[in-house]
Amino acid sequence: MSVKKLNIIILLIMLCAALTSASSFKLGGYYRSWAQYDYPPSRIPFDRLTHIFHAFAWPESDGRLAYDAAFLNPELLQKAHQVNVKVLLALGGAVNSGGFAAMAANDNARARFIENVAQFLQTHHYDGVDIDWEFPQSATDRLNLVKLVNELRQKLDTLSGDLLITMAVPVNDWYGRWFQFEVLKNMVDWFNAMTYDFHGSWTAHSGHNAPLYSPSPQVDACGSVDDGIRYLLNERGLPPEKILLGLAFYGREFNSHGLYQSATGGDVTYGYADIVALIGQGWNYRWDDVSKVPYLINSASAKLITYDDTLSIALKCRYALDNHLAGCMTWALGHDQLGDRQPLLQKASEILQIWTDLEESPENLLPAQLELHVQPNPLQAHVTFRLILRTKQRISLRLWDLNGRLVATIIHNKEFSEGEYSLRWQAAGLAAGAYIVELQNNFQTINQKLVLLK
């Protein structure tokens, strides 16, 4: 067999393996019906998603299915289905879960609600239902939730289309004790882990909204993404392939002089796009290398905002893959709109290898053709970029700020031969803070965070 033929066979095997891997991960996003005027379906990058949870309809105590007058959105379902993205009807939520307990406790109301949901799914061509009961609060609620899901599962199984049931769930025992996971896992297709809101107005101190890891045991950190996933896996026995890790595309503001200090507030939230616009406007960027998330400090007004950026989102998606989870979900789509870019969603889809058109992401199908190493980092005046190129190729090297603005083009579409290159660059005229270094060829993009000190 010739070397050329052997290389073709190896490439085909790699392509098949990559396709199998990519298709196995999920990336779901909650689409807020009340945000559809600022973020219509035409702005959703459906090729970056596998599932959409259309939020929210809700149960009335007598079993009626309720939703706002402007909730129905045929365009959302049409555009999603055109690229094989499934849309689930999300039920409840933090504001509209009040009817669950009474409805689930009454046999007639429960049966009526299930019929109403089934009819709604069929009429409007949804692919399933996401139950977001926030939250059951008693042993009675726990049993009635099982009844509701069991009977709903039986009803949906009689309909055509392999309709899904998913469930948004807490990640600690405060509310998690009222979920009978050992039974529910046999009826629910997967669970959307709400791995965020670890700090807020309910805590006496400031802290990260969604830390990947907790700080030292001496700090009352109120939990982390890792703690929450370990709770579901180890304490509650959920299989990893039935867990989507929750990604927060928003942050929280505290009145506080620093992280894990006495605080008020925590009830004001901002989308990612609003947060990054504050950087340099009295707000200074900080990175917590223990919890692996960023935050902003405004010393003049004694305020702190905790949130997620592209780096922390990438680390969480990698965590999901390393722990063999089914993928990730986000609250909420549209929070990261920066002009025509949605950087958090894009980063999540890149890590999870979510795409619908092979031609759009060939970098996921080929071996890495380039590497980027940055030293020193943090830097004060000069930085050296070490580039490793495994083939002859054209590359570009750019620097972006955290608002998504291009700061510098260091290399523009220049052809290099295979080899290793070192480029020393002076960061003259740049303000102290965090930046993103982007190395790109026709098939691959590498992003690294760069911190400039003054």
Automatic annotation (TrEMBL):
Keyword Chaperone in record: no
Uppermost EC category: hydrolase
Reactions the enzyme catalyzes: Random endo-hydrolysis of N-acetyl-beta-D-glucosaminide (1->4)-beta-linkages in chitin and chitodextrins
Domain GH18: 25-355
UniProt keywords, alphabetically: Carbohydrate metabolism, Chitin degradation, Glycosidase, Hydrolase, Polysaccharide degradation
A GO molecular-function annotation: chitin binding
Superkingdom, natural source: Bacteria
Keyword Hydrolase: yes
A Pfam family recorded for this sequence: Glyco_hydro_18
GO biological process, one term: chitin catabolic process
EC number: 3.2.1.14
Family: Belongs to the glycosyl hydrolase 18 family.
Protein name: chitinase
